[in-house]
Amino acid sequence: MSAQQEPASTLRYKRLSTLPMQTVGGAHPLTPRGVVDSIRDVVGQREMLGLLVKRDLKSKYKDSALGFLWSLARPLVQLLLYFVVLGQFLGAARGIPDFAIYIFTGLTAMGLFTEIAVGGTGSILANAGLVKKVYVPREVFPLASVGSALFNFGVQLVVLLAATVISGYPPLHWGILYAVPALLLLVVYGLAFALFFGALNVYLRDMQYLVEVFTMLLFWASPVVYSWQMVQSQIQNPVLLEIYTDNPLTLAILGFQRAFWLAGADQPHPDDLLLRMGIALVIGFVLLFAGHRLFLRLQGNFAQEL
Q1: What would the pLDDT profile of 193-207 be if each residue is shown by its tens digit?
Q2: pLDDT attached to residue 11
Q3: What is the pLDDT of residue 280?
């Protein structure tokens, strides 16, 4: 049979057999070079990452009349419930000025962390079809969850800023800079959670439910619907108070409150808040690095497990 008569598939296989083999992903993923190579792969797939973020946002609100406005529905309903039930019925608002802004500030911050952690944990399973069929750096799936969470956070932040203007306390002060390290804390720790538990979730499918329960516990362990001052007055042991205060989510929420809750500017806050946030951020980057290394170690069998 002449070359012209050979099937097209045979010719294609022969042509592919002459191409050199190329390693995808880090050849040694647990070495510093392997980590750098994986980051370079992710940067090279930034267009793919952008498409995944757009797909997640579009699929979430597909065929809905209000579209992205639904990203406000849950925090606004939570705000109403907490404001009425906790603030008015249970009296939590008595010692907290401008309670509605206080609540919405904490809900906006906590919502970002929860969406990154929970969405990133289930991201590999949610994209099982892509993982099994084509090679892309697996990190793009948790990162896509970060992108969509940041978009929703941006929408809620616009509403929060509008609410501060309406309340008469717009955040026109130097304290607004606290929002930068607070945002970094939420993203870094959320992504560390997403990489760590997202990789484990491929092998142990209960991880996503564990993360949902854990984030719920973190919500109530952070000063979202109650103030740090209430905790300070109730916890007499200074060591326990330091442990509570140095919780990274507590620090992030306190930072957002310093930035956007001007009505509480005269309320007591932890000493050296910015220094505490800086230390927590350094620890967060260490955890992110460790979570990424675990992710690289486990990603080799993702397709087989799925």
Answers
A1: 999 999 999 898 888
A2: 66
A3: 96
For residue 138, give both structure tokens: 């697996």
Closest CA to 187 of 249, 122, 237, 261: 249
What total of structural domains would you count in the chain? 1
Does residue 16 belong to any structural domain of this protein? no
**What does the pLDDT read at residue 66?**
61
Is 34 within the bounds of a domain?
no
Residue-range definition of the domain harbouring residue 143: 44-305
Q: Is residue 127 part of a domain?
A: yes
10 part of a folded domain = no
Q: Letter for the amino acid at 127?
A: N
Query: How far is Cα 29 from Cα 209, in angstroms, rounded to an integer?
Result: 28
* Global confidence as pTM: 0.84
Position 127 scores a pLDDT of: 81
